[in-house]
Amino acid sequence: MNIDRNQIAEHNKRLEHTQQRRFAQLAEDMPNIDGVVQKLVSFQVAIPSWALGTGGTRFGRFSGGGEPGNLEEKIADIGLLHALNQSSGAISLHIPWDIPKDYAAIRTLAEQHGLAFDAMNSNTFQDQQGQTHSYKFGSMQHVDRAVRKQAIDHNIEVIKHGIELGSKSLTVWLADGSSFPGQLNFRRAFQNTLESLQEVYAALPADWKIFVEYKAFEPNFYSTTVGDWGQSLLYASKLGDKAYTLVDLGHHLPNANIEQIVALLLMEGKLGGFHFNDSKYGDDDLTTGSIKPYQLFLIFSELIEGMDNRGMEHAKDLGWMIDASHNLKDPLEDLLQSVEAILIAYAQALLIDRNALNEAQATNDVARAQEVLQQAFRTDVRPLVAEARLRAGAALNPVQLYRELDVRGRLVKERGEKTVATGL
Ligand code: AOS
Ligand code: ZN
Ligand code: ZN
Ligand code: ZN
């Protein structure tokens, strides 16, 4: 199914009056409101191919209907999201789940939906059918050179798929680590991983980046070989200029100060991108902004301080994507909510009075600094974000239109009641 301009225009017409009133009210207090709206219009966040189906937990999976069964249908789903919000103009693929059969056809299809190919993802955390060596005891860290070689070759193959599609980056998330003390020699595991990554790095085209994602735990529960941002930064620094750290919001030990990590990675020129999601306990992969919206806002505040104010561009200098998994909600509704939450946090952070904050910091006026931040955070910026959508030709209320058009019902009719999306 497709969503056309007329359906969007008709929906917007019905909501436009209220929108105008709310936007005008905000505009009264904001001299540079059009500049802010323009930044929101250009903001794009990539959707991972594996977030379009019901993820389940290790205890079970309650499958939903109408889920995409192949890469073409995944692109179509993200096309629907992008038509609704004009902010999801990219897809992130996972190999081997999304191996294209016909590159040209896939590129054309993505183009028709206005989608670019964001970071490619490799998979050495599962054994695939017909694979020679098992990753049970790790991949790039493995004690056996033959296993490491297999993991390296796989990543190089992923780069090749990406080149054909026009992607410009590779994200490596390693499940490698250990579950019991004594299982690993930490230094050897690090060295093996580094050498493996170096071989992959050598295969990167000149205009590509490699993102090294870190994660504190799971599936290994005693040590992780890329366990935190320090270790990731160590790998990225040793690898070279094309290597960066990737921050997944759910991959820290509880209560980590993620905004500070972001600030320092930016300072070092080593922040590569984000996996947006939210969590209360661990790598919960919940809808972005559903648990800790203030943290998300503070992260964006650091991003603006470290990027916008220094001439960096979000679209070109960072890889942004959602990494979430849905057990209860319709995955497409959930992704619309995540994108909305990201835009809200960005908009709020753009409203921070930077001069006042700088002044408060310079004079140790702690109370004032808090006032400045919370003034922005407590502004209801939803009319701003909606205005950006209106100007971009998207729906004023994407979730509402999604329901009005009964998108899920129509996908179920097309694809069936019991579907399993390939992926997690
Ligand atoms: C795993 O926890 C990481 O978040 C990965 O980035 C991602 O979820 C995985 O690559 C998807 O298969
Ligand atoms: Zn991730
Ligand atoms: Zn994760
Ligand atoms: Zn996650």
UniProtKB/TrEMBL annotation:
Coiled coil regions in record: none
Keyword Manganese: yes
Keywords: Isomerase, Manganese, Metal-binding
Molecular-function annotations in GO: isomerase activity; metal ion binding
Descriptive protein name: Sugar isomerase R00627
Organism: Parapedobacter pyrenivorans
